[in-house]
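YM 10:42: Periplasmic chaperone PpiD sequence, as discussed on the call
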Amino acid sequence: MFEFIRNNQKIMQFVLLLFIAPAFALFGLEGYSTASADANALAIVGDYPISQEEFDQVKRERIEEARAQSGDNFDPKVFESPEINRQLLDTLVLQYLLQQSVQKQYLTASDKALAEDIARTPLFQVDGKFDLDTYKRELAARGLTPNQHEANVRFGLARNQVLDPVLRASFFPETLKTQLDDVQLAGRVVRVKSIDLAPYAAKVDITDEQIAAYYDANKSQFMAAQQADVEYVVLSPETIKSKIVVGDADIASYYEQNKARFSTPEERRARHILMDAEKEGASETELKAAAEKVLAELKANPGKFAELAKQYSIDPGSAAQGGDLGFFNKGAMVPEFEQAVFSQKTGALSDLVKSQFGYHIIEVTDIRGGEVQSLDEVKDQIANEIKGQKMTAQYADAQGRFAELVYEGGQSFDNVVQALGVSTSSFNGLTQAAPNAPDILKDAKVMAEIFSADSIESKNNTKAVQVGESMVSARIVNFTPATARPIEEVRNGIVTRLTQDEATRAALKDADALAAKLDADKPAEGSEVLADFSDAKTVSALGAEGLPGLVAQSVLNTGVSELPKAKVIGLGAAGYAVAWVQNSAPSSEIKAKADPQVVQYYENIAGQVYQEALLLAARDAMKKRVEVEIKKTF
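YM 10:58: structure's back
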């Protein structure tokens, strides 16, 4: 199954869009209805312009959804194709068409239908029943208010009234499915003979005259690259930093000013019991009284904290652990909770602490951290930080000075070395391919300066070039121009190439002759001419029985009306294959023998394609009621 999917990536990319496009329909369009100037619109649907910003936002969302669905198999290049961009824009247009069709037809959904739809949503249910607290919590987690969500759902229900005829018709007619199967899945029965190049190559005898002729005609292939022995200097932030000296007094002063930075953050471990502060059917007074009752029981029996947390706490993350929240530092909890925790002593119980989540009863169980490191412990760290700060201030001036000095130095870096304390380095045999060169010399800008006509001719220092945070200048000490390598150095390569060419021509000649004989004789099963061919194999869109991809593709491209037909397929260095495509195999036979998961996958694709066609037809019908102008082509 997975081999089939790998070999049909274009289909997979198309299906990806079919699956993610409906994601637009999950929410109302108020988030995308901000009007922008028509002149900058990608499309105008009735009174609504679709802006580039809106399109980009939707595209980013679709990319993130696809990334989440596909994991490591996600390829962002899928979204770079014009086809995908057109489909995304079409989907936005369709949503606006739906929105305006709903408005023009004054469609809406009743309060009863709205309530029933929300109640049926599994996300808002507990034990199969709608739960109001869960509903509010899940919406809040998604940044939605109940009013916003209900408006979205109401629009969706109204929109479905427009699409209802399409949705009812979205079953895949059996007759159409059969016709599509016959076109897409009908197989070909084929026998194949491989023609290896090795026997032909063994008979080839290449002469000196052939070698010389090939060498003279293709000298550009055998040129040794120009190369240079170079000297260079590099100015980096570390060069400046290494020259800076920091005194003990500066280190001590820095330590006193930043002592808080050298303290390990205080962390506290706490446990809590969380009880309702708001609940349908109960007053605030009743809920607070219930929490105070538990607090009183705890004060009377402190050892029952874990037991009561498991019994009463509504915090699902900590209740099962007896209310334990583990260690945390400041900033990890809501302000009311944090203030209580970091003001308590270990083992003490808090009074009721009210937060947005309810009433908390808190006990701090452990404290760690908060110790200040000594000056000796952080002395080296501080010295390094001070050097870094001073280096930042000095480096910009040093860069300007470096550029001036390498220009003034002519054919020497002595003045740069003396003024800035840099050191010279050298590299011999530098070429523009530069596989073994230092990374800084491999930079394209540096390479262009070194091998410029002026640098080669004058051997002066190149201008200073910025590479990352560093600057570099180089000069050529010795230069060797590009020259043709001697024929003896490349002789073996030429012989290999000429042998391959002649073997290929001879093999192709025999393959063409065999194919012509097959087409002329149309041999029956058991014929002598087919003796060296493989057993009959069936090739289809659902499988190729181990045949090379090039062979399978060529065989499947053979029209039924052409059969039987011989085909010659080039396999590169592996030679040729002669395929005798004998007859077709009906789609029913192909499906019966294929992996059921692959067949189901194919049928799902076909059904999705059919439903997409119906949606496009619905879109075209809506365009008759709402004017659409597409202003951007991809």
